Amino acid sequence: MSASGGPLSRDRFLPLAVLLFIGSGCAALIYEVVWFQLLQQVLGSSAVSLGVLLGTFMGGMCAGSLALPRLVGRARHPLRVYAAVELGIGICGLLALLVVPAVGRVYTSLVGHGLPGILLRALVAAICLLPPTFLMGASLPAIARWVQTTPRGVSWMGFFYAGNIAGAVAGCLLAGFYLLRVYDMVTATFAAVLLNALVAAAGWLLAAKVAYQPEPEPAQEAALTVHRPAPSTAVFLVIGLSGFSALSAEVIWTRLLSLMMGASVYTFSILLAVFLTGLGIGSAAGSAIARETLRPRFALGLCQLLLSGAIAWTAWIVARSLPYWPINPTLSSGPWYIFQMDLARAFWAMLPATILWGASFPLAVAAAAGPGQDPGRLIGRVYAANTLGAILGATGSGMLLVPWIGTQHSQQVLVATAAIAAAISFWPSLRLQFGSRQQVPRIAVAGVAAAVVVALVVTLPGIPWMVIAYGRHVATSSSSAQVLYVTEGMNASVAISRWEDGQRMFHVSGKVEASSEPHDMRLQRMLGHLPALIHPQPRSVLVVGFGAGVTAGSFVTYPGIERIVICEIEPRIPPTAARYFQREQHDVLRDPRVTVVYDDARHYILTTRETFDIITSDPIHPWVKGTATLYSTEYFNLCRRRLNPGGVITQWVPLYESDFPTVKSELATFFEVFPNGTIWANDVDGSGYDTVLLAANGPLRIDAAAIERRMRTESSWISASLGEVGFFSATDLLATYAGRAQDLRPWLNGAQINRDRNLRLQYLAGLGLNNRLGNAIYQEMLRYRKFPADLFASSAQEQAWLRQSLGFPPQDPD
Q1: Residue 228 binned pLDDT confidence (cut-offs 50, 70, 90)
Q2: What is the mean pLDDT of residues 155-181?
Q3: What whole-number percentage of the chain has pLDDT above 70?
Q4: Which of 105, 403, 581, 781 satisfies CB 3.0 to 4.6 Å to 490 for a cystine?
């Protein structure tokens, strides 16, 4: 063969093609992270929105893998086609930065609820994601035409796939731990575009070095006499079931493991990187096996059978092993030590199954391959079948399986699914020939395998309630608590427990979100009563986050309030809280003024036309992935636009499980939008615990006498509700004042502002969640506090009482 164009020359450059695919995969994962963050700011972060985004993303890849071999003839040089595809992806990446905000503005003007709203979200996702994901799906079939459908060629297709996954691992870690942590989504996008440009340029230059001799087109193939067996439909079904089980497991295991590791952006990056690493290792191993084996379909079936055991292994490890590792995350305030431990736990749990899923793809390609086939069409069909199964798994597990039957039974379904895929693959070898004794050993082996699978399904354990309740602190939490209720919803897992002293805890996804303990009750009542009393005459209220319902219930005590809208993302939370915290929440769900909206709060505030006198926001901790959108300047500006003139907003900010940069970022971001913002402390015996930020849409003046009068005369429920948490007068309540924006300006100088384009807060908070600096932060804030005589519209006597209550020296008579 000639050095310029023969097969030997082409084979010599195949490793370079694998390197190109590594760069392509790295760029693709960066885009995926960025696009999902961009679109979730428009469509919301609920399970429905995430399902729409995942379905559209993978649907585009599925369509691209099927369409390219039909749209582009085999005569074109595969590397030039691949280079054009990569260039197109880069162009789409740049356009996304312009298109998503524009489409978002149109969406917010048209959005509705129910099925029409879901369809509109799907349309927005399709406009933004289908063009680039179509091209991403087309890249593998494009370059696959550079090889032939021989065992050696099929093996190289698997190595291309493995290289793509290796690049995805790098992109996942690069985006999650560096680009988005240090820079923003624009910089991350430019980095991905640069990678696409480099890959496209390298592909084009390589095409000029290596000649390409195309195989005959399909029309010409029909005239040939070579026998080319059609790929078996059963192989496509098997790889589709494999994709279903893989993405279903990824959704379920990410949910369960993030309970134990903390659902930060870093945890999600670690889990995704481990999952992809296993796929890459398996794909490389499967490619090597595909080159040597004479029975690829049997090897594919064996992979699925072993997967039944591997899925069960992960379920056992997650439920019976990892929760009992003696890990106390607060022993090290340095996050990188915890990340190493999380990485070890993730590998220990997920690696066996992910390797087998990775090996399934090249083995499926080998099982479906025949001499002389179009490599692009072959790998496109296998990839499409796998991706279609992945779409069903990713969307169905989170939106249907887990809310319907829970994570334990969902994993049982996956064990059975893998066994069914194995049976389909083995079926040609198991078909009985009546009277043949040669089938007896095969039937016996199949019977034993079926019995083992049944045993695995029946004995598969469920996640302990303590993990749902205490998450990453499960090893150090008291086991004396009694579980009252556990449920797994579409967006979160919920547990109710009772301690020996009778206090009830409300747990959401591994965290205590509310309780009947005095300090928690005081915070929840402050979030409601502070704005309700400071606003002179509130009529409408929006409550962001239901929790135990105590904050929402505080507004029930005000007869002048006519409408209370509660926005909650998890439908299981309000009825559960109403059952166990009915007295503390004043039976809020039965009040005729109350409307509960089940939606992502950001999405609701973005799309509603209603305005309110009060907005009170008690979201989950800022270190939880996705929560930073409820602490950004854009979110606070949305809230300001939904406030009536003179309206009041309150926002919860925790001091515990945090550090100085995180708290400073939260305060500085809020104060940038509300420069008249104030801070109100919920301390525990004088030590800092958490705070309430309060501001008004306009000038803020607090009339202590009017507050005292309303507490005494407007409704007996108001004074009773406040008295239960230790506020017996207006002075008691106002004595929680801890500072305001203008006084803290020197302290907050240089604080990082959390904006939609960087979501800096979730990266800061994720690094500081193991700290115990709440009191140090609180005392540092108090150093800047000054008595705000211009803030309180009160008599001299009331001013004196307030000064004394706040610890300020008496004012000089003159």
Answers
A1: very low
A2: 92
A3: 93
A4: 403
**228 versus 293: which is more confidently predicted?**
293
- Mean pLDDT taken over the chain: 89
Q: Are residues 498 and 535 in the same domain?
A: no
* R_g of the chain computed on alpha carbons: 30
Query: Does residue 580 share a domain with residue 504?
Result: no
Q: Count of CB atoms within 10 A of residue 8's CB?
A: 10
- Residues 275, 175 within the same domain: no
Q: State how many domains the chain has.
A: 4
Q: Tell me, yes or no, whether 86 lies in a domain.
A: yes
- Mean pLDDT, residues 175-199 taken together: 95
Instruction: For residue 697, count other CB atoms closer than 10 A to its CB.
Output: 21
**Do residue 557 and residue 659 come from a single domain?**
yes
Helix, strand, or coil here: 793?
A: coil
Residue 518, in any domain of the structure: no
Crossing angle for the helix pair 151-174 and 375-396, to the nearest 10 degrees: 40
In a domain, 513, yes or no: no
Assigned token pair, 655: 């001091």
| Domain identity same for 553 and 602 | yes
pTM over 0.85: yes
Q: How far apart are CA 196 and CA 517, in angstroms?
A: 55
643-654 and 687-696 as β-strands: parallel, antiparallel, unpaired? antiparallel
CA dist., res. 775 & res. 768, Å (int): 15
Residues 127, 110: Cα–Cα separation, whole Å: 15
Supply the DSSP symbol for 572: T
Mean of pLDDT values over 422-451? 73
- Asked if the structure places residue 128 within a domain, the reply is yes
Across residues 151-175, what is the average pLDDT?
89
Q: Which two tokens stand for residue 251?
A: 């959704």
Phi, psi of 169 (to 5 degrees): -60, -45
Whether 675 and 534 map to the same domain: the answer is yes
Q: Report the alpha-carbon distance of residue 630 to residue 617 in Å, rounded.
A: 9
Q: How far apart are CA 736 and CA 530, in angstroms?
A: 10
| Domain co-membership, 44 together with 144 | yes
Query: Is residue 8 over pLDDT 60?
Result: no
Using an 8 Å Cβ cutoff, are 792 and 734 in contact? yes
- Tell me how far apart the alpha carbons of residues 754 and 673 are, in angstroms, rounded to a whole number: 11
Concatenated DSSP letters of 386-404:
HHHHHHHHHHHIIIIIHHH
Contacts 24+ apart (CB under 8 A), 236-239: 236/364, 236/368, 236/381, 236/382, 236/385, 237/385, 237/421, 237/424, 238/300, 238/301, 238/304, 238/360, 238/364, 238/421, 238/424, 238/425, 239/300, 239/360, 239/361, 239/364, 239/382, 239/385, 239/386, 239/389
Question: What are residue 416's phi and psi, to 5 degrees?
Answer: -65, -40
Q: Which of 84-98, 212-226, 355-369, 548-562 has the lowest mean pLDDT?
A: 212-226
Which of the listed residues 187, 214, 241 is the one where a domain comes to its end?
Answer: 214
At residue 478, the pLDDT reads: 66
pLDDT tens by residue, 622-633: 999 989 999 999
Q: Which domain holds residue 477?
A: 465-508
DSSP label at residue 505 = E
Which of 214, 248, 269 terminates a domain? The answer is 214
Closest by CA to 570, choosing from 593, 596, 551, is 596
Give the CATH number for residue 377: 1.20.1250
Give the residue ranges of DSSP H helices in 724-773: 730-734, 741-748, 760-768
Res 441: pLDDT: 72
| Same domain (yes/no): 258, 175 | no
Estimate the crossing angle of helix 151-174 against helix 335-368, to 10 degrees: 160
What distance in Å separates the CA atoms of residue 110 and residue 667, rounded to the nearest whole number?
33
d(CA 756, CA 40): 11
Q: Once rounded to an integer, what is the mean pLDDT over residues 335-340?
A: 89
What are the residues whose beta carbons fall under 8 Å from the beta carbon of 582, sequence distance 6 or more? none
- Of 533, 473, 467, 447, the C-alpha closest to 770 is 473
Region 527-555 average pLDDT: 96
